[in-house]
Design goal:
316 residues, five-stranded parallel sheet, five-stranded mixed sheet, 10 helices, binds 3'-deoxy-guanosine-5'-triphosphate, binds magnesium ion
Length: 316
């Protein structure tokens, strides 16, 4: 990306060697060192592609491609944030020629012979526009970066770094619809840390936060496919969205997470002496009469059942 203070790169396109020399001398006397030059339309387009000059001084009448056509080609090939100032230099003096020059994408239209004073003034005016355009591009890049960061912040859980509830709401619905189209089952796994209130009471809130981060890491490991999602559902509860997965597949995944969490070996004041999780599973092939909400409630009921049955287990 060009910086606002970068020197101007100017391309002069002119088939008369004498005029070309004069124009280059004018430019050099206003501190535009070694302007690029082209004596044909084909050469002009090639240099434009390679060098992306800030300004093109463009003779309208050239031996091969005419200047208006060159301007049209440049304008149609410019990408977003790309802009080259085009100043026509021509001996065509009719108002209609000027209008056509602007119409095809020219920014200014000067009639020959051109005085050094006028050329310098016009380049200065164009420099002002170029600097404005560069600042706009800067601002738009900053806005894009800020937007991306906002997007990340609004979809990520600050404590654990995994997706938050909002992201879950959005992506689970998308996945539900995708599975509906594919006629494949969608599974939800609700995971909840066992006796976590006691953990906080015993070891403090900060240790509780550490524990949440460690468990979140194991939950995230269980969602490696693009269609999977691991999210913090709230408090010490997590959820896995597993596309194209039936209850057996989800059970296998949940069993793995349950074991990995136990293997973290985080000490706890429970009978098992370590932090464990309980999981509830529900899976269904999305169709009318069912909804994501129903599936979620069903997974929640299974989780409640896992708690009732003694915790540290998976219930479908
Ligand atoms: P159960 O086995 O039935 O799930 O019991 P529990 O104690 O885990 O469940 P309960 O809902 O009674 O308590 C959840 C606890 O999780 C209470 C709350 O303080 C704690 N908690 C929720 N969010 C956070 C957090 O961000 N950090 C910490 N340290 N604790 C949290
Ligand atoms: Mg000419
Ligand atoms: Mg609870
Ligand atoms: Mg709990
Ligand atoms: Mg809970």
């Amino acid at each position: 990306m060009k910086k606002r203070t970068d020197a101007l790169k100017v391309l002069v396109v002119e088939d008369s060697k004498v005029t070309l020399k004069v124009l280059c001398n004018f430019l050099e006397r206003m501190d535009i060192k070694q302007p690029l030059t082209a004596e044909t339309g084909a050469a002009a387009i090639e240099i434009y592609r390679k060098e992306r000059p800030d300004i093109i001084m463009l003779d309208a009448q050239l031996p091969d491609i005419d200047g208006f056509e060159i301007a049209r080609q440049i304008r149609s090939s410019e990408k977003k944030d790309d802009w080259t100032a085009i100043i026509f230099l021509t001996s065509m003096t009719k108002d209609e020629d000027l209008a056509r020059g602007i119409e095809v994408g020219g920014d200014d239209y000067l009639m020959k012979p051109i005085s050094e004073v006028v050329l310098h003034a016009k380049v200065r005016a164009m420099r002002r526009l170029i600097e404005m355009q560069r600042s706009l591009v800067d601002v738009s890049h900053q806005l894009n970066a800020a937007n991306k960061e906002l997007q990340r912040l609004s979809t990520t859980d600050g404590l654990t770094g995994i997706a938050n509830r909002r992201m879950f709401d959005e992506l689970s619905l998308r996945e539900w619809r995708r599975c509906e189209r594919m006629k494949k089952p969608l599974a939800l796994v609700m995971l909840d840390i066992d006796s976590f209130k006691l953990f906080n009471d015993q070891f403090g809130h900060q240790a509780g936060d550490e524990c949440l981060r460690a468990v979140a890491g194991q939950v995230a490991r269980a969602a490696p496919r693009a269609a999977d999602l691991a999210a913090r559902y709230g408090g010490e509860e997590f959820v896995l969205v597993l596309g194209e997965t039936d209850a057996d597949g989800a059970k296998w995944v949940a069993e793995n997470v349950r074991q990995h969490v136990a293997e973290l070996g985080i000490p706890h004041a429970t009978p098992s002496r370590r932090v464990t999780i309980s999981c509830g599973i529900a899976s269904v092939e999305p169709k009318s009469g069912f909804s994501l909400d129903v599936l979620l409630r069903s997974a929640d009921r299974a989780l409640y059942q896992a708690k009732v049955e003694g915790r540290d287990r998976v219930v479908v």
